[in-house]
């Protein structure tokens, strides 16, 4: 009838140690001496020794499971206070480390561990309704800000039509994250949006480090591990609207059972082995990975392909214009506008990246082509996508203005290409081709009467040829650029996850 709170055995099997209430310790010692009298007389057991005035200190938390270094951090914290550990026990669940200490050391040990793990900062998350989603938004650029505004503006619509509510518990830029585990109010979110639109940082330089430099382990990773992953979020969704290499951070979210929504193409264009590992982990953790907004902004391109495949059809080829920026430049070229002028106009209209070379290199379209190719089962990497830039390498300059002035050297060549094509009723388009033998992106002259030839401005178009849609391919056309349509695609993915996984 004596309760044992902790038990541990050395791997050598030479001793068994356990903890009982002090008021029962003499009884426990007597019972054991009686039970093992023969073994003690035969020297099979040396002694039953009792140590009084000890206590058990337990470190408990869901965030411990699968996280290396927790035990080492605990022991290091105690060693700084010169606290001796009498015995240690850890369960197979990895959710608890129990340590037996001298009773006089418990208060100092407890205070040191609270300070080391910043436990005074932690609060339990408020209880949510059944159809509530907790959002973490990575990125607060134009698309990120637009997504936040759409979520604020559609709050009542989502609640009334789907019975769904969503709270943003974290939003991050490159300086680090802002967290509010109770959820930011609509007013707080709009204030963040306005501050970011003015070019302010979410986290000050003083909070980042000396000189405002970001270390190799970014403030986003450090803060999220320390302050967000220490809470059990049962219905969490991380939305990545950055343009950064966030693969490793997203893998941490997946291991914490967060669903993932991407407008960021980079995590999907990592080497194929890493890409397949990400898909395997999402299946193992039973979380969703949706990325409709990575190709065609708000157009249902990937969803259409997925539905074709789920019905037993097989996609043979895909081709299309996947860049609103290059679509605008191509149609301007076809209308007789000089190439350098068309690029400058696109930049002035806000269609290009801050440096137009990022668009004209074709790399963005190559990433989209790779995502499409992998979605139809092609096992390839980015370097296998044949990519032709719209400018020769020697014209590149890190200064956008110098670069755009240099593009004037290509005006005559581009004009000759367009005029030659016009005689054959062809127009220029920057096309991605995903075929059986190869995948390539580059400027092509296409028939002006073809679907791609009739495409105008920043619209995107994808032509999907399958076994069923062979003679008459399936075509998806619509706005393929702009923060509004891209953010809307992210919202659609979020709603799809809520419907499929949260009972909305």
Structural summary, described in words:
The chain has 504 residues and is of the alpha/beta class. It has helices spanning 25-35, 37-41, 70-80, 106-116, 142-153, 155-162, 186-197, 205-208, 219-228, 247-255, 272-284, 301-310, 324-334, 339-348, 357-360, 363-375, 400-406, 411-423, 451-454, 483-501, and strands spanning 6-9, 16-19, 54-60, 85-90, 96-102, 132-138, 165-173, 176-179, 236-240, 259-262, 289-290, 315-321, 386-387, 426-434, 439-447, 459-466, 474-479. The relative contact order is 0.10. It is built from 20 helices and 17 strands. The strands form 4 sheets. Strands 8-7-6-9-10-11 form a 6-stranded mixed β-sheet, with helices on both faces. Strands 13-15-14-12-16-17 form a 6-stranded mixed β-sheet. A 3-stranded antiparallel β-sheet has the order 3-5-4, with helices on one face.
The portion of residues assigned to helices is: 25-40%
Care to count the β-strands? Answer: 17
**Residues in β-strands, percent:** 15-25%
Which structural class do the helices and strands define?
alpha/beta
Strand order of the largest sheet: 8-7-6-9-10-11
By oligomeric state, this entry counts as single chain
Number of helices: 20
Low-confidence stretches: 206-216
Q: What general form does the structure show?
A: elongated
Largest sheet: 6 strands, mixed
Rg from alpha-carbon coordinates = 30 Å
Measure the end-to-end span.
50 Å
Mean pLDDT: 87
């Amino acid at each position: 009838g004596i309760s044992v709170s902790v038990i541990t055995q050395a791997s050598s099997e030479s001793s068994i140690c356990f903890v009982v209430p002090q008021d029962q310790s003499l009884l426990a010692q007597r019972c054991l001496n009686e039970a093992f009298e023969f073994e003690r007389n035969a020297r099979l057991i040396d002694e039953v020794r009792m140590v009084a005035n000890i206590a058990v200190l337990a470190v408990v938390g869901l965030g411990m499971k699968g996280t290396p270094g927790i035990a080492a951090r605990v022991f290091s914290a105690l060693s700084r206070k010169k606290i001796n550990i009498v015995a240690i026990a850890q369960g197979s669940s990895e959710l608890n480390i129990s340590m037996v200490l001298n009773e006089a050391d418990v208060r100092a040990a407890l205070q040191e561990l609270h300070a080391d793990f910043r436990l005074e900062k932690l609060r339990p998350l408020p209880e949510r309704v059944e159809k509530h989603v907790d959002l973490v938004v990575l990125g607060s650029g134009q698309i990120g800000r637009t997504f936040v505004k759409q979520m604020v503006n559609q709050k009542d619509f989502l609640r009334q039509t789907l019975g769904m509510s969503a709270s943003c518990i974290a939003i991050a830029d490159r300086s680090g994250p802002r967290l509010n585990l109770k959820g930011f109010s609509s007013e707080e979110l709009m204030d963040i949006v306005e501050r970011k639109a003015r070019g302010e940082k979410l986290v000050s330089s003083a909070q980042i480090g000396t000189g405002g430099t970001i270390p190799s382990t970014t403030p986003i990773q450090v803060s999220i591990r320390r302050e967000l992953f220490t809470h059990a979020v049962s219905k969490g969704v991380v939305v990545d609207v950055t343009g950064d290499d966030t693969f490793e951070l997203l893998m941490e979210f997946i291991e914490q059972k967060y669903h993932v929504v991407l407008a960021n193409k980079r995590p999907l264009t990592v080497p194929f082995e890493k890409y397949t590992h990400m898909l395997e982990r999402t299946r193992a953790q039973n979380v969703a990975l949706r990325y409709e907004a990575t190709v065609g902004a708000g157009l249902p391109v990937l969803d259409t392909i997925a539905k074709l495949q789920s019905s037993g059809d097989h996609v043979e080829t895909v081709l299309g214009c996947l860049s609103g920026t290059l679509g605008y430049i191509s149609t301007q070229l076809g209308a007789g506008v000089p190439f350098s002028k068309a690029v400058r106009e696109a930049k002035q209209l806000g269609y290009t990246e801050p440096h137009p070379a990022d668009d004209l290199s074709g790399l963005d379209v190559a990433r989209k082509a790779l995502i499409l190719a992998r979605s139809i089962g092609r096992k390839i990497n980015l370097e296998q996508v044949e990519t032709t830039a719209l400018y020769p390498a020697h014209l590149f300059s890190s200064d956008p203005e110098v670069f755009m002035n240099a593009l004037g050297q290509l005006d005559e060549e581009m004009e000759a290409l367009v005029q030659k094509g016009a005689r054959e009723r062809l127009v220029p388009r920057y096309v991605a081709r995903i075929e059986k033998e190869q995948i390539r992106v580059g400027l092509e002259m296409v028939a002006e009467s073809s679907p791609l030839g009739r495409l105008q401005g920043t619209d995107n178009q994808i032509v999907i040829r399958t076994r069923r849609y062979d003679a008459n391919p399936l075509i998806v056309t619509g706005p393929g650029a702009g923060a509004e349509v891209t953010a809307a695609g992210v919202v659609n993915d979020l709603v799809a996850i809520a419907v499929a996984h949260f009972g909305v």
